[in-house]
């Protein structure tokens, strides 16, 4: 089977030979690595780099919520999130406000300076996104993005289920189905 990438590779002297270009996980990895490198360069001066950018994005959009929920949603250790927020707050880009309903909880809000900087940074990130999407026909881009965002939401649910299953396994509360089928953990009389 000849892939589209292999067919186009002869046209470019800088193209790499095809390597698993039709394997789902590999393809996602290639796109992710290119995106991550581009965004890292685009937001290099921001405290926390790309993670700082996404924290600032959530704050500007009013989606950051509490420090804990933001850490959980981004898959960042809470201690690391504290350091990232300390740096962003010290730079005057975000502020933490106590939740009136729960004084132990802090809401993350963008400052006017944070909103202004985010506007500049988001333009750079959008350029990276457009360069990556350049190979997708203009008429298909929105469909591709809609499918990507749906996949991301589904992947988030899948990951949470895996985390929940792993936590349950470590406490012994539940066993994976395959272990139960093999009879592990059962007493035999």
TrEMBL record:
Superkingdom of the source? Bacteria
Residue intervals of the HTH marR-type domain: 21-153
Which UniProt keyword terms apply here? Answer: DNA-binding, Transcription, Transcription regulation
UniProt biased composition (Basic residues): 178-189
Pfam families, A to Z: MarR (PF01047)
Designated name of the protein: MarR family transcriptional regulator
The species is: Streptomyces broussonetiae
InterPro entries annotated for this entry? HTH_MarR-typ, MarR/SlyA-like, WH-like_DNA-bd_sf, WH_DNA-bd_sf
Q: Which parts of this chain are annotated as the region Disordered?
A: 168-189
Question: Which range is the signal sequence, renumbered to this chain?
Answer: none
């Amino acid at each position: 089977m000849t892939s589209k990438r292999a067919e186009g590779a002869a046209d470019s002297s800088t193209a790499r030979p095809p390597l698993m270009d039709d394997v789902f996980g590999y393809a996602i990895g290639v796109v992710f690595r290119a995106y991550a490198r581009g965004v890292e360069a685009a937001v290099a001066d921001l405290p926390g780099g790309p993670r700082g950018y996404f924290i600032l994005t959530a704050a500007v959009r009013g989606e950051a919520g509490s420090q804990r929920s933001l850490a959980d949603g981004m898959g960042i250790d809470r201690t690391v999130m504290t350091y990232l927020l300390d740096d962003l707050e010290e730079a005057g880009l975000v502020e933490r406000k106590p939740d009136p309903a729960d004084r132990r909880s802090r809401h993350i809000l963008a400052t006017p300076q944070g909103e202004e900087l985010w506007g500049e940074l988001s333009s750079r990130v959008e350029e990276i996104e457009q360069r990556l999407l350049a190979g997708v026909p203009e008429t298909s881009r929105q469909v591709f993005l809609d499918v990507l965002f749906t996949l991301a939401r589904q992947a988030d649910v899948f990951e949470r289920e895996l985390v929940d299953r792993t936590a349950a396994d470590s406490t012994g509360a539940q066993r994976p189905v395959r272990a139960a089928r093999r009879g592990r953990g059962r007493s035999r009389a």
